[in-house]
Amino acid sequence: PGCSSLGYGAMEELGPFRVNSDGKTLYRNEYAWNNVANVLFLETPAGVGFSYSNTSSDYSNPGDNNTAEDSYTFLVNWFERFPQYKNRDFFITGESYAGHYVPQLAYTILSKNTSKTIINLKGIAIGNAWIDDNLCTKGMFDFFWTHALNSDETNAAINKYCDFATGQLSTSCDQYQTQGVREYGQIDLYNVYAPLCKSSAPPPPTAGVVSVSINFMLVITSFF
Q: pTM for the whole thing?
């Protein structure tokens, strides 16, 4: 949570434009999703990117439930402002922590569609879903090892000292996780096949703190 949908999702992944290496100009993304669909990038929760609130307490207590309600309120008002899209098939997609945001927003929409269809939700899709911290952390280090980003010794130690099933992580587990993060170096964590673009060494990682899953998982659910 806290990552800009415009700065990352739109400008680095599936939006109509990408940023050139000069950091000032753009080029068209031939694989943009808007080639086949109308795409709305929503920055959540309030305080992320261009999303804001006039109530200061919203920033100190966002939470998944509040985020789902805020997103629903935004969508209802957006469809009122642009009614030409109101009856079209609607899909929610996301990645990483959207493994929580997407299904909770879908649940909110469906629970409010009981008497009439307010939002014509047809399905959800989640890529690289961060659903369970222990499961996804293990998946990330498995990915590092199977892509030759971690040594056999480090991988064996992580599997030995880290009890991901119960979440009981020892000091040795933290140390070897830190070693695993160090070993992948300056490779882009989100795209290990991307060209290296960092100009300086990254800061030392914090032991036991990992914030992203690369163990790819795509979940698609349809509502008919």
A: 0.78
- Determine the distance from the C-alpha atom of residue 24 to the mean position of all C-alpha atoms in its chain, rounded to a whole number: 25
- Over the Cα atoms of the chain, what is R_g? 20
Q: Burial-class residue 30 by CB neighbours within 10 Å (0-12, 13-18, 19+).
A: exposed
Overall residue count recorded for the chain in this entry:
224
Q: How far apart are CA 41 and CA 32, in angstroms?
A: 13
pLDDT in tens, 167-209: 887 999 999 999 999 998 888 887 888 777 655 555 555 444 4
Sign of the CA dihedral running 96, 100, 103, 105: negative
Q: Which two tokens stand for residue 167?
A: 């979440």
Residue ranges and CATH numbers for the domains of the chain are 5-131 (3.40.50.1820), 132-212 (no CATH)
Kindly report the average pLDDT of the chain as a whole number: 86
